[in-house]
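User: Hi! I'm working on a homework problem where we have to compare a predicted structure to a textbook description. Could you give me the structure for the chain below?
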Amino acid sequence: MSEQKLISICIPTFNRCQLIKGLLLQLNDVAGLPFEVVVVNDGSTDGTYGLLEAVPEKLNYPLNIFHQENKGRASALKKAVMAANGEFVIIMDDDDRFVISCLEQVPVDIENDLNNLKSGREIAGLVYLADDINENKLVGTKFPYNNFVSNLTEIRADYHVKGDKKEVIRRSILQDVMYTVPDGEKRMPTTVLWARIAKKYDVIFKNTALIKKQYLSDGLTKNLTKNRVENPVSAMMGYFEVITSPEEIFRSKKYMLRNSINYFRFYFHLKNKFSIFYFLFAGIIGWTASIYDQIVIRFK
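Assistant: Happy to help. Predicted structure tokens:
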């Protein structure tokens, strides 16, 4: 096993040879941060394999490379996180770039904030803002204030924070909540991980941009609905983790309703029609039974 680093940067990649090269070379500029990079090549056919085999001699940090047949981003991301050795993990898209000065500040934030800021629950890590690399502005909205302590579901449900953010999460926690990829599916929303973490842990929100995001036409953000329709079980898993959160995790009834509706929305994209009939039938019977329960309790 490699020597443990403070941070593991985990990058799944597929057919983005020049983009992954740019990201790996950018990290040469990082100073004073003990980190490793874990890249999983998800069966690329554009020269990524050769690039990854040749590029380590141009890098001044440890690069762990894994090649696999094309199984999809969900599988590649899981493999990268499970292979990480760092105390903390940053999941990175191959088309995004770091704000180097902020990345170099992360160890200081970990040392100062995780040790000094108090919460009623254990702190899983830090969450930073993201800038749009093309429009040179913040993606979404800021957190209520710097060093705000909350959980990864409440921040969106009750504080209405929007847009992509960048999480720095303890590896042990992230590995503990890691998903199982459903058969035949390739895309898993990271909401599954964040909602599972939110059930047990808080995080510290930093009003500083850690990354610059690039929204390409073939990227995840531009194709959210399409990816969820093609991976309905994975989509449902994300909504399920939110709607099964304990009441103390978030308060918004509107957020609960929206996630509940989306759970059923993508249920109807399942290929197994019999399972849909069975689910609806069971729902009707369950609803009828609940009415019976109320009658029994009232007139007991």
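For your comparison, note the following. Strands lie at 7-13, 35-42, 63-68, 88-91, 97-98, 123-132, 137-138, 148-150, 166-170, 202-213. The chain has three domains: 1-94, 96-269, 270-300. Good luck with the assignment!
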